[in-house]
Design goal:
single chain; alpha+beta; Trypsin Inhibitor V, Chain A; seven-stranded mixed β-sheet; 20 helices
């Protein structure tokens, strides 16, 4: 039966409605997929065609107080593989094993895995990366990372510490300030098609990542080098097992140099045992011996228990305390306070300790910072060992009075001596002076911090004057004296505890000297300790000369001139003015009108410092690398008061 016109119209409308409904459904579905689900689908797609690997962040740099680099991050290449694309893992492993210095079996296992990304070598040497590129192995790729490098090698190694491969700080400043140095990680993004083939237009994309912050230390690289060189020299010459040097600025607590022996190179820290990497200045304890005596003297004077001019009977060299006999190295009778310190009478100080008594003595010891951490911004600092006075017997009080029966760290000693040098204030020692962004914007600046007042200015001044006598003729520290400067100091020779017997060793000693200079206005406190030197181990023989050599160079470096000497060689000396000693200078370096400039061209920083020390030169140094420019030119006279400098460059 033929359809009527009305039926046709209904059918058309019906199918039209179906088409419209289908269109709306398709359009709605398309909108849902392309708009509503778009972010989620895009994320799934990215996951399927991208491989994202987190890269090590770029650590900030570490500089000394003059802006010379001590730790930097250099560009290095790392090698990775897509094992799915490696056709013959064993053959590739054979080709790579010598270059990467890894076992063939290990490389073969990595290259045979079903993962799409495996590291084969991180932060490779440029020559190694170049040789691997020549192999043109499909499935191997390189990515740029940052490698930690210490341009000064072992200089300040115990302060700086080192990093791991990540790179996370593992020791020293690198560990203590790991978070600000770290920065944020970048990402390696590799794009691939459906068959796993890399897209040439975007094979390696490094996204994100912010460089870490830079640290500027209080250390002076030149002073640090001299301290380490002199410490290594005395350890070598005396056959000692180790030693430390701490140099502080007493007015602020800034650490100018911090050296330990034995040392190591942080560029290859893993090759050295932990014992060599240990920072002895903050981690090792020792009995200070006679270098502890100035603190008892300060306490007695502060309490007003003994007047400076009072005489102390020193028992003719032998004194019985608590059933034990204390001996002096000479048979002293009546000694003033000044003489008791100058000649380092153990008996005299045992009697002073008895006058002060346990509780007050303990209180002053604590106030000087012993038995607690100094607050230095370094990891691993120990508190030392100080027993409460309730456990002191009579012989303990006497022994602690001359520095036995108490354990301290070299840094504690230097910080405490700084309180006597600066007028009675115990300062908190610190190493990081300021923190900046990678662009040089200041983030944080450290200011000196007073922990507490220990003694009055008057008492500190009295003790300083008495300590000067130690380095004057007749004192125990004459080898620490410097011509033209008043040096305040104290020698120490302490027995070490024998870990087997529990008593004091008959032949193991710690030789030390601690002091400051110039005594009238101290610019530096310097502590020298030498652990187990062979032969005569007296602090005045072993440690005092080291103090003199380092202090002499430091004062010259800081332009603190000696009194009573002539430095202007360009004019005729007057009869009343002593001529400077030119004996250490080479004959061809001395002219009638002054010193001549050596030829430093091409020398390294260390070679320049050695030459300056040999020839008693004081030149301004800047930059890093090798000498590229100097003034005045080689052979020309260095005139007093005129500029003389050396510039280093790559």
């Amino acid at each position: 039966m033929a359809l009527t016109e009305r039926g046709i119209q209904l059918r058309i409308r019906f199918f039209g409605a179906l088409f419209i409904l289908a269109f709306l459904l398709i359009a709605g579905r398309a909108y849902y997929l392309q708009v509503v689900l778009a972010p989620e689908l895009q994320s799934r797609a990215d996951q399927q065609r991208q491989r994202v690997v987190k890269l090590a962040p770029q650590r900030g740099s570490i500089f000394d107080s003059r802006g010379d680099p001590l730790a930097v991050s250099l560009v290095a290449e790392s090698l990775y593989a897509d094992p799915v694309l490696i056709k013959s893992p064993k053959k590739v492993a054979e080709k790579l094993r010598k270059l990467l210095k890894r076992p063939k079996k290990e490389l073969s296992r990595l290259l045979s895995s079903r993962k799409r990304f495996v590291w084969l070598g991180r932060k490779l040497d440029p020559e190694v990366a170049k040789e691997i590129r020549k192999l043109k192995i499909y499935g191997l790729q390189f990515v740029t990372e940052r490698k930690r490098y210490y341009p000064q090698a072992s200089i300040a190694a115990h302060v700086l510490g080192f990093t791991g491969l990540d790179p996370n700080g593992l020791e020293g400043i690198e560990l203590e300030y790991d978070q600000p140095l770290q920065g944020t990680s970048g990402r390696l993004v590799s794009l691939h098609d459906a068959r796993g083939r890399g897209l040439a237009s975007a094979e390696q994309l490094v996204q994100g990542g912010v460089a870490g912050r830079n640290l500027f230390l209080t250390l002076d690289r030149s002073l640090q080098y001299v301290a380490e060189k002199e410490l290594a020299r005395v350890v070598r010459e005396t056959g000692a097992v180790g030693g430390t040097i701490v140099m502080l600025e007493p007015a602020s607590g800034r650490v100018l140099a911090l050296a330990s022996q034995p040392d190591y190179n942080p560029n290859s820290a893993g090759r050295y045992p932990a014992a060599k990497r240990r920072n002895r200045a903050v981690c090792d304890m020792y009995e200070p011996g006679s270098t502890f005596k100035p603190f008892l003297l300060a306490a007695v004077l502060e309490e007003g228990l003994v007047q400076p001019g009072k005489k102390i009977y020193c028992e003719n060299g032998r004194y019985s305390v608590g059933g034990k006999t204390i001996r002096d190295h000479k048979k002293f009778k009546q000694l003033s306070l000044k003489e008791t310190l100058k000649f380092s009478s153990n008996i005299g100080f045992a009697k002073l300790g008895k006058i002060l008594e346990r509780e007050r003595f303990y209180s002053y010891i604590r106030n000087f910072g012993f038995g607690e951490r100094s607050g230095i911004d370094l990891p691993g600092e120990v508190e030392g060992m100080l027993r409460p006075p309730s456990g002191w017997f009579e012989i303990d009080l006497a022994a602690i009075s001359f520095g036995q029966g108490i354990s301290v760290t070299p840094l504690q000693m230097a910080a405490a001596m700084g309180a006597i040098a600066n007028g009675g204030l115990l300062m908190e020692p610190y190493l990081v002076e300021k923190i900046t962004t990678a662009d040089g914007e200041l983030v944080e600046k450290r200011l000196p911090e007073v922990r507490r007042r220990v003694v009055s200015e008057k008492t500190a001044r009295l003790v300083r004057e008495m300590m000067v006598s130690v380095t004057e003729p007749g004192g125990t520290g004459t080898r620490a004296a410097l011509p033209g400067y008043r040096v305040a100091g104290k020698t120490g020779t302490a027995q070490k505890v024998d870990m087997v017997t529990g008593g004091y060793s008959p032949d193991k000693r710690v030789s030390s000297f601690i002091g400051f200079v110039p005594a009238d206005n101290p610019a530096l406190v310097l502590s020298v300790t030498v652990d187990e030197p062979k032969g005569k181990a007296y602090g005045g023989l072993i440690a005092a000369p080291v103090f003199a050599r380092i202090a002499g160079h430091t004062l010259s470096h800081l332009n603190i001139l000696p009194k009573g000497t002539v430095v202007a060689l360009t004019r005729e000396p007057q009869a009343t003015e002593p001529l400077p000693d030119l004996a250490p200078l080479l004959p061809d370096m001395v002219a009638s009108d002054g010193l001549r400039m050596p030829n430093f061209s091409g020398m390294s920083y260390r070679q320049v410092l050695q030459t300056m020390q040999q020839r008693n030169l004081n030149l301004k140094l800047s930059g890093s690398g090798q000498v590229v420019k100097q003034y005045p030119p080689p052979g020309k006279v260095i005139r007093y008061g005129k500029s003389a400098w050396i510039r280093f460059g790559a």
